[in-house]
């Protein structure tokens, strides 16, 4: 029920309450134009991380895809829809089902490998290099008020963070280092790397 409520609140926020200037969205215009230099580094880092989160969810959910609904369509849809795509699965699809693991064996080998997890970490930390250009919370706050894209993606980012922590605690309750999951984006990967048997 909580996931459905969060999903409905997220939809309501995106449609009715997200701040942003009327007319064209300045950040979205720069994204479509490929004018990355004009986008604040923190905004760009958060934007890029929304493309990394789905990889994290693919890794966690497909390693444990035995639930009522298959996880892979929602994980893939998260590349375009973020939490908008994942919350329905957590609300209705994450229920026990008497079935085996759906994920093909070859893909499980990849997703359970340390090479894949290290690749994810490199990808995550590579995205953080954008912040070397400077971090300005004031600029981010201005972009949040001026761009509906930034305001919605910020809320989306926090929900994805919460879902990633939940997913680790849900599927790996006995992980000794599951507290690491609270480290944004990288935390769940670090927990998976710390597992003795994955």
From TrEMBL:
Keyword Transport: no
TM annotation in the entry: 42-62, 74-92, 115-137, 149-167, 179-195
Keywords noted in UniProt: Membrane, Transmembrane, Transmembrane helix
Signal peptide: none
The protein's name in its UniProt record: DUF2834 domain-containing protein
């Amino acid at each position: 029920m909580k996931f459905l409520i969060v999903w409905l609140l997220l939809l309501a926020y995106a449609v009715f309450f997200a701040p942003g200037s009327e007319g064209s969205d300045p950040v979205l215009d720069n994204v479509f134009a490929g004018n990355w230099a004009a986008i604040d580094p923190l905004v760009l880092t958060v934007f890029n991380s929304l493309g990394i989160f789905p990889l994290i969810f693919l890794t966690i959910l497909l390693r444990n895809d035995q639930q009522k609904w298959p996880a892979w369509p929602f994980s893939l849809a998260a590349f375009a829809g973020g939490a908008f795509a994942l919350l329905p699965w957590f609300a209705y699809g994450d229920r026990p089902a008497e079935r085996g693991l759906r994920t093909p064996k070859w893909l499980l080998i990849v997703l359970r490998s340390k090479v894949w997890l290290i690749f994810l970490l490199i990808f995550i930390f590579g995205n953080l290099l954008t912040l070397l250009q400077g971090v300005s919370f004031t600029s981010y706050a201005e972009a949040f008020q001026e761009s509906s894209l930034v305001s919605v993606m910020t809320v989306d980012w926090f929900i994805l963070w919460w879902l990633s922590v939940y997913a680790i605690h849900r599927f790996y309750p006995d992980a000794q280092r599951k507290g690491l999951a609270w480290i944004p984006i990288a935390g769940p990967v670090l927990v998976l790397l710390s597992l003795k048997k994955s």
